[in-house]
Every structure is written in C-alpha cells, then in structure tokens.
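re the bet — no i am not wrong, look at it urself. input seq straight from the record:
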Amino acid sequence: MRRADTLAVVLAGGLARRMGGGDKPLRLLAGRPLLDHVLARAAPQVAAVVLNANGDPARFAAYGLPVVPDGLPDHPGPLAGVLAALDWAAAHRPDLPWVLSLPGDCPFLPRDLAARLHEARAREGAPLACARSGGQAHPPVGLWPVALREALRAALLGGERKIDRWTARHGIAHADWPAGPCDPFFNANAPEDLAEAERLLAQGLQDGRPPPIRLLEPNAGRTPP
C-alpha cells in the first residue's frame, strides 16, 4: 500500500569505515548496488524518495532522485540526515507531513514497512514510530513528523547524536517483525555481510520465507542391492 502522505529518505551519507570507505549503498549485491535493492522495496510504499548524502551528488545521478546533504557540519550522524529530509519536505513537498528514514545498507526491508509504522503510531498515539525485529529496535528505520523538525534541529545543535534518546523524549511506537529466517533489517556493514546477503538471496530467504524443502530422490540414501 502506497502512503500518499509520506516521503522516504535513504540515509546514504555514512563513512562506511567497516566496508573500507566509499559509498556503501553503491557496493554490489547480486550484481546490483545495495541502493537498488533498498529502492525496489521502499519506493512503491511512499509518495516520493530522496537520498541523504554529502559530497558530489553526481555519483547518484543515475537514480534521478534529489540528493539532500546534511544541513549541519562535521557529519553528526543519521539524525542530521533525518533533519535534512524533514527540511526538504517542508520546502519542496509541504503536502508530505511524514518522513520514513531508511538505511542505505538494508536490502531486505519489509514491503509493508511504511504502512506498519503508521499503524503502530496511530494505535499507540505516539508522534514517532520505529521498526523492531526479534525484540531489537532499529532506530534509523523510523517514521518522523515534519512538524518536529525544529525540535530536532535544536537537539542536534545542542549536541544530541543518539536517535533513541531523542525519540524517547517525544514518544515512540514500535512495529514488530520476526527476526528469522532472515531479519528484514539485516544491514550490510562489512564485506562479510555482503557475502551473507548473497547467501540469503540465493536461498530465497529475503522475504521471511522458510528455506525450500529438498525432497530426496526415490533411491537417495539407500544402499544399492
């Protein structure tokens, strides 16, 4: 279900130290950039998508999406990327009062993520919502009201860097998913994570399906006469 009131921001501005530097969302998974996998799952759920990234935006030109840099210096973390998206929505899409934040290294995001986060927010009467799997919260995967952008700006200028500490002050709901057989919020932080993602894709586990049952051939396991 597409949310006509929500902008998605893919947080692609990290320094990717564990991946060896560079743009982690442009690393390949199954022959396609991680960002392709994220967008394939996220874009059908929302009205519009922007990328949060610093530096030369030309490296993302092939995607034809607005590239929104942090509005604060010194790369203060994902909260700055969220604020950049809230500011962009207020300036360019005032018809979109909500922003869905997504890490650029999560290739298996749920296809009902936006709808479930909105449901959790409405059910619990909270202004914010966050994804959770297997009891583990994922603060960068969240739903943010544009109306809180000045409060977020003040917190960042005051030195706040932790997402969950800031959201707890305002009230946050959680939407839950199972963590297996493949955690939908699996993130590829390092080269070995990309290898694991390749394995999950090869086994068809990326949408929470159990592994296929392998039937034995009629004579498998039998001792020949």
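see?? The longest helix spans residues 78-92. told u. also Residues 16-20, 210-225 have pLDDT under 50 and may be disordered. so pay up
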